[in-house]
Amino acid sequence: xxxxxxxxxxxxxxxxxxxxxxxxxxxxxxxxxxxxxxxxxxxxxxxxxxxxxxxxxxxxxxxxxxxxxxxxxxxxxxxxxxxxxxxxxxxxxxxxxxxxxxxxxxxxxxxxxxxxxxxxxxxxxxxxxxxxxxxxxxxxxxxxxxxxxxxxxxxxxxxxxxxxxxxxxxxxxxxxxxxxxxxxxxxxxxxxxxxxxxxxxxxxxxxxxxxxxxxxxxxxxxxxxxxxxxxxxxxxxxxxxxxxxxxxxxxxxxxxxxxxxxxxxxxxxxxxxxxxxxxxxxxxxxxxxxxxxxxxxxxxxxxxxxxxxxxxxxxxxxxxxxxxxxxxxxxxxxxxxxxxxxxxxxxxxxxxxxxxxxxxxxxxxxxxxxxxxxxxxxxxxxxxxxxxxxxxxxxxxxxxxxxxxxxxxxxxxxxxxxxxxx
Length: 422
What we know:
Strand content: 15-25%
């Protein structure tokens, strides 16, 4: 997925690096954050400097590294001012030793002092041997941090530095990047709002080796789901295709046929609307600020218009079919029309090649399909599919706004801005 260069523009991140072999991955993390427009300053423990030199981080971040040897109180190069400067404190990697000290408010190095003095949300990406990360005391320390304004990024299972395969490896830099983006970009309107996104081309079986489909890549739906994830929404992406590098904790359902999509979408819509409560329950939940926000559905899937009338459970042989094959098709179910859209804000997507009548056709869809808005995408030909950029007309009943050509993630953020004003 193409990440816009201004995604984190103006955001300031203080990155803590501790003494783990995974410290080399933090160099890539600095690169990703900088590339997305964020400014990064690094604070290192003395143990971390055994694995990566401060010069490497200074070269990538264009900022002086803060460590135990160079703290100054005549300027802002100290653990208090660094925290006041930062919008987010991230520690990656965080060793078991650092986790234990953080959980017990021990501040015997400058990195720990920076964390103890930082009053806002902090993110840590643990890195440790399997036995160390699974030690009951380490687990207890992580639980303590989770209730003390720390967000914990799950470790992964792979071959560790000790040559054993097990849990404990630090999450990949791309995954840590998405957690940072979510922490910095979340928006009250979308936080914890249930949102369903459908995407990709459905695959309709003809026989065991052949199918009907179309050129839809699913990239727009993946970008929309990622934008919603960054805004803090509770996202469910139902698709036949997924773009690479999606956040791992973004909930996805992999489907193939339109019947599968309808089944999962129906269940997802029902669950999303479960927040429709009795007056008494609403009054009780109002007291603890848990009222369900109205859910959203973004129907970006390219559902096949026709399916084979008699799909076969074996491979059809050309010797049996003959020189001509008259494949009988029947009109497919209209999923968007079939879904119960009461109490859920619904945005449909429409691809058109008839530029002259495209807007009129999309506007008619609002009434004919019972949706709240339509995102119109005017295509030139099949080469328009699978690109990393898009241009969209966001259409409501009496209004049309153009979202200019840009990368699909930027376009998605623009769509969300229009969608919340419906």
